[in-house]
From TrEMBL:
Transmembrane segments: none annotated. This is ST8 alpha-N-acetyl-neuraminide alpha-2,8-sialyltransferase 5. One of its GO terms (molecular function) is alpha-N-acetylneuraminate alpha-2,8-sialyltransferase activity. GO terms for cellular component: Golgi membrane. One of its GO terms (biological process) is N-glycan processing. Gene3D superfamilies: Glycosyl transferase family 29. Belongs to the glycosyltransferase 29 family. The keyword Phosphoprotein does not apply. It is a single-pass type II membrane protein.
């Protein structure tokens, strides 16, 4: 998945945390638990400042940035370079993957990942960054813990939650198959392949 010159290899890490941006992580107090992982993945440069760190932690070893983030949140960097720079400062010790996963050197791998998840029932125009990071974590880590992954308006206790932990902006429809991804994560959790955290860490 990663270019040969990146310093990651299969099962190099004992415990990894992959952090989704779902509202299910809000008020979870999982920050310390997340930061205790050996390697932490995050998607799309989410906020990890003091307002959110108790829930989501701050440690980040790899963070992705999708092209749509550059286009929509930072107006293609035509006028908004300083805000982009300020956001990146929160990730100064992290590897930043941009654009996320769509490097021609990775094409064969991406096609294999797409085929694998299609067999599992995840058929979408594009796999989500979160699913790609989970795939990478399964290759790199002995233990994979997921936080902030959910695709439904209510948590398992029936309480309404926001779409993201930092806002309630819905994604553009038709790109990802998020419910199918989450159902796969739940199934993998029940089989002991991953650890899906959907509640409080206190």
């Amino acid at each position: 998945m990663f270019p040969d010159d990146m310093p990651y290899s299969k099962s190099q890490y004992k415990k990894c945390a992959v952090i989704g941006n779902g509202g299910i992580i809000k008020n979870s107090k999982c920050g310390k638990e997340i930061d205790s992982a050996d390697f932490v993945f995050r998607c799309n440069i989410p906020p990890i400042n003091d307002k959110y760190s108790a829930d989501v932690g701050t440690k980040t070893d790899l963070v992705t940035i999708n092209p749509s983030i550059i286009t929509e949140r930072f107006q293609k960097l035509e006028k908004w370079r300083r805000p982009f720079f300020q956001v990146l400062q929160n990730y100064e010790n992290s590897s930043v993957v941009l654009p996320a996963f769509y490097n021609t050197r990775n094409t064969d791998y991406l096609l294999n990942v797409q085929r694998f998840w299609a067999v599992q029932g995840v058929r979408a125009k594009r796999l989500s960054s979160g699913l790609m990071l989970v795939t990478a974590a399964l290759e790199m880590c002995e233990e994979v813990h997921l936080y902030g992954f959910w695709a439904f308006p209510m948590n398992p206790s029936g309480i309404f939650i926001t779409h993201h932990y930092y806002d309630n902006v819905k994604p553009r429809p038709g790109f990802h198959a998020m419910p199918h991804e989450i159902f796969n994560f739940i199934h993998m959790h029940t089989r002991g392949i991953i650890n899906l955290h959907t509640g409080s860490c206190m």
